[in-house]
């Protein structure tokens, strides 16, 4: 299986090559040249598989340059009960109104990003050892992504992580989760500034070609193909849990920001998984809802991005969306280049003639949730079921309930646990006890390891130089 760029000006690459890539050199995103097709017999066979065995069947279709035994070993070492809390890895439960919830957030950092990042950490270590090289990840985080990357890469051979976060801006839990890591290859850098300042420093380092080459600088952002591929697996796993037989269909409702999670659902459907609808749930930052309602994609500026109580969905442009638009436009790289030239010019684009295709052929639907919806949903679910859901999952539940049709089985993806967002949970449900997974009691009291630097790319480069010297 070869990989091509959505912009069409990058030579085909192997899986091992795209695994270590961010954006393609032509500015596009890498995708498999075609989606493998799953026939009825294979789907029947897969229904009975354990999560790691299912993951192997799916990933081996994409990671064709990794020997089967090696891939099996990487997967077996990733999707364990020890890391994800249950043998099922992504168990599905049913609320009293019939809505199903698939738990994706029982990994080490309590958010769904662990599902892909834990795999990526093990795959990186394997590919780097094989190539006899090293990789130094430089990233910026406002919470979930950075901690998922650190927990995936801690202690790994050949990898260092330099993760910037805005000093004093994350929740006490999120800070403790990252800064309490004592692994020698993990460096937390608190920047005296905002999240955008951290991202600007990442860009400045990425744009320094000599520095980037000398220090083998890479990233692990959500456009990484390895992350999207690993996420495809849980759509299959969720489908099998939510149905009795392969004659049934399921719709997935996905709390969305960068379109990475639901992009994997789109690919699962294209492979032949019987998915009826893919429902995009946004918060007040509703660029994606606007697209699926009107066909117009109008990315916003950072200043127009709302700070909300489902912060991991606070995005102004959806970085994975280009993969779907590539398919929607008939995989025409020229069209994609023209559309993103408009985005770069700050205009956005209008694909309303293709809106019916997005809905009917690709099954997309969308809805939006606000702070008040989120609080009401958390409160209602707590009152009815006695369980606390996190604010992002609440956005999904709200949208799923408002769009669900008679007889439709809807699985809402649970993207984080309530324990990560205690303030919003208390605002919604009062002074309730918020359950925390075993082993995380007293997290905030552990010693923390973090260097604080001024808002200056040079200061960060100096830390990288002296660490790798
Ligand atoms: C990252 C994240 C999302 C958004 O996922 P995308 O892949 O960016 O669409 C939703 N919820 C939580 C808790 C997240 O961490």
Automatic annotation (TrEMBL):
Chain ranges of the Tryptophan synthase beta chain-like PALP domain: 104-311
Threonine synthase N-terminal domain segment(s): 2-79
EC identifiers of the protein: 4.2.3.1
GO function terms (MF aspect): threonine synthase activity
Residues with PTM N6-(pyridoxal phosphate)lysine: 113
InterPro entries for this protein: Thr_synth_N, Thr_synth_N_sf, Thr_synthase-like, Threonine_Synthase, TrpB-like_PALP, TrpB-like_PALP_sf
Co-factor requirement: pyridoxal 5'-phosphate
PANTHER family: THREONINE SYNTHASE FAMILY MEMBER, THREONINE SYNTHASE-LIKE 2
Protein name: Threonine synthase
């Amino acid at each position: 299986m070869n990989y091509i760029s959505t912009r069409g000006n990058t030579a085909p690459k192997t899986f091992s090559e795209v695994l270590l890539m961010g954006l393609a050199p032509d500015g596009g995103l890498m995708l498999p040249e075609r989606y493998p097709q799953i026939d009825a017999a294979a789907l029947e066979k897969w229904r009975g598989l354990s999560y790691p065995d299912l993951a192997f069947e799916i990933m081996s279709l994409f990671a064709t340059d990794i020997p089967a035994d090696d891939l099996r070993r990487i997967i077996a070492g990733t999707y364990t009960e020890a890391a994800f809390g249950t043998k099922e890895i992504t168990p599905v439960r049913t609320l009293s109104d019939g809505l199903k919830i698939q738990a994706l957030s029982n990994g080490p950092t309590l958010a769904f990003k662990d599902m892909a990042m834990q795999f990526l950490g093990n795959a990186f270590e394997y590919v780097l050892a094989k190539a006899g090289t090293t990789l130094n990840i430089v990233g910026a985080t406002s919470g979930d992504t950075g901690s998922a990357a650190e927990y995936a890469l801690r202690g790994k051979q050949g990898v260092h992580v330099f993760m910037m976060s805005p000093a004093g801006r994350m929740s006490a839990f999120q800070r403790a989760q990252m800064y309490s890591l004592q692994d020698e290859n993990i460096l937390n850098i608190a920047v005296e500034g905002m999240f955008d300042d951290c991202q600007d420093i990442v860009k400045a380092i990425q744009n320094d070609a000599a520095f980037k080459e000398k220090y083998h600088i890479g990233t692990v952002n959500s456009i990484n193909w390895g992350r999207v591929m690993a996420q495809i697996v849980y759509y299959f796993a969720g489908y099998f849990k939510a149905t009795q037989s392969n004659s049934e269909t399921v719709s997935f409702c996905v709390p969305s920001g960068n379109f990475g999670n639901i992009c994997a659902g789109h690919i699962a459907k294209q492979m032949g998984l019987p998915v009826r609808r893919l429902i995009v749930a946004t918060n007040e930052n509703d660029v994606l809802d606007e697209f699926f309602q009107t066909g117009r994609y109008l990315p916003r500026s950072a200043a127009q991005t709302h700070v909300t109580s489902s912060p991991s969905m606070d995005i102004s442009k959806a970085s994975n969306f280009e993969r779907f638009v590539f398919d929607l436009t008939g995989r025409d790289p020229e069209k994609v280049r023209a559309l993103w030239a408009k985005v770069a010019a700050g205009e956005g684009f209008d694909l309303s003639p293709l809106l019916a295709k997005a809905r009917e052929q690709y099954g997309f639907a969308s809805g939006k949730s606000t702070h008040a919806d989120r609080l009401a949903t958390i409160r209602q679910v707590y009152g009815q079921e006695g369980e606390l859901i996190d604010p992002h999952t609440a956005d999904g539940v709200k949208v799923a309930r408002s769009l669900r049709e008679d007889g439709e089985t809807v699985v809402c993806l649970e993207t984080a646990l309530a324990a990560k967002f205690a303030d919003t949970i208390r605002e919604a449900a009062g002074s309730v006890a918020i359950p925390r997974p075993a082993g995380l009691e007293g997290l905030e009291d552990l010693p923390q390891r973090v260097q604080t630097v001024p808002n200056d790319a040079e200061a960060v480069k100096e830390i990288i130089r002296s660490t790798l010297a």
